[in-house]
Write a structure and sequence with these properties.
With 373 residues, this protein is of the alpha+beta class. The protein is 22% helix and 33% strand. A hairpin with a 6-residue loop joins strand 2 and strand 3. The N terminus is likely disordered.
């Protein structure tokens, strides 16, 4: 009998030292830690979660009533899952997952919780190919600054890339040199994965450069070229007058009497009076961004009379090319002038529709090498 008592005491002591697990319900958590991994190797993402429905069934029984399951709600609600890595996953990576819980709730419900850590090795992911979605995108800026505009053409032959959509952020027109255009590719990561493609570069910056630019500042004008044009204008007055079909005295004065006189006419004297630069300062109906007016005084004579009048030549839309060269249309000078005896009337007739659209400036340093006699 003495030995039996000692055995019973030893058994009770062992039960106490075991952490009072007798009478508790065991629950292993790891079977209910689930994970889904998707994407391409090196870029995959994972979603880890706890199968709470399975835990309720394990604790209360699969056929238990909702009331019975609700007895464990406070414990199940206390379960929290943490993972050491969920993104940029590649084949061979190991994800470590740990579940924490409320110990007091577990003790109250007489639960013995174990196996609450789980590791998962990533495998079976497809290898992807990095693509450059801007490689075959042709960006073109067309026009003259500040009215240039941007377009693009997707020249890719790839069945996926050629159908990608691109969006130009910011302004697409009214562009000047130095403007930066941002183009965004509206690529969908999940759709790209269906083709085993991926990219981290979805925007591209394009700096506008090399555009021809309208001139608004007279310092951008080339005085040497303008002097050449002045000589061309003077030569035109002379050649037009020398042409017997022009009848320059009639054109200058408007008097039909000169139509009945000898048509042998010539320039007796000519000088450059002034050169005026008009630059657009406001919107209006005029199609020109700038205008250069050459004003000449000339004496036109025939064998009987000499008339003194004015010739005004008009040149428009001077630009600086993308290479910095000064350019202005100078063809057909014989079609660019008007003439008359009254300077104010002649000049005002030209600028009357421009006064609210342009600022004007007299240009200096433009002269004829010598007066034409």
């Amino acid at each position: 009998m003495k030995k039996i008592k000692i055995g019973i005491v030893m058994l009770l002591g062992a039960m106490l030292l075991s952490g009072c697990s007798v009478g508790k319900k065991n629950i292993s958590i790891s079977p209910y830690i689930l994970i889904d991994v998707s994407g391409l190797s090196g870029r995959a993402g994972a979603v880890a979660y706890i199968d709470t429905a399975g835990i309720y069934n394990a604790l209360a029984g699969s056929d238990a009533s909702q009331e019975k399951k609700d007895e464990y709600r406070s414990f199940v609600d206390s379960l929290e899952l943490s993972c050491d890595k969920l993104d940029k996953l590649a084949n061979g990576d190991v994800i470590n997952m740990t579940v924490t819980y409320d110990n007091e709730e577990a003790d109250r419900l007489k639960l013995n919780v174990n196996d609450f850590v789980k590791s998962y090795q990533v495998e079976g992911l497809d290898e992807g190919q990095e693509i450059d979605v801007f490689k075959d995108l042709e960006v073109e800026v067309t026009g003259i600054a500040p009215y240039a505009f941007v377009t693009y053409t997707n020249n890719s032959t790839d069945p996926y890339i050629k159908n990608l959509e691109y969006v130009i952020e910011g302004k697409t027109a009214g562009l000047e040199n130095g403007d930066v255009i941002t183009i965004r590719c509206m690529i969908d990561e999940k759709t790209a994965e269906l083709y085993y493609y991926y990219t981290d570069v979805t925007t591209m910056n394009y700096t506008v450069e090399g555009l021809d630019t309208y001139i608004y500042d007279s310092s951008q004008l080339d005085k040497e070229v303008l002097s050449d044009i002045a000589a061309q204008c003077a030569d035109t007055i002379c050649s037009e007058t020398d042409d017997t079909t022009t009848r320059m005295l009639y054109r200058l004065t408007g008097s039909s009497n000169y139509l009945y006189q000898d048509n042998n006419e010539w320039v007796d004297n000519i000088k450059l009076n002034q050169v005026v630069f008009l630059s657009r300062s406001a919107q209006g109906a005029s199609p020109y961004e700038n205008v250069i007016l050459y004003v000449f005084e000339a004496a036109i004579a025939n064998n009987n009379y000499t008339e003194y009048g004015f010739f005004i030549f008009e040149y428009t839309n001077a630009i600086r090319s993308g290479d910095g060269e000064f350019m202005i249309g100078r063809n057909n000078p014989e079609l660019r002038y008007v003439c008359g005896l009254d300077f104010d009337e002649l000049y005002n007739d030209i600028v009357k529709d421009m006064e609210y659209q342009y600022s004007s400036q007299l240009l200096e340093g433009i002269t004829l090498e010598e007066n034409v006699q």
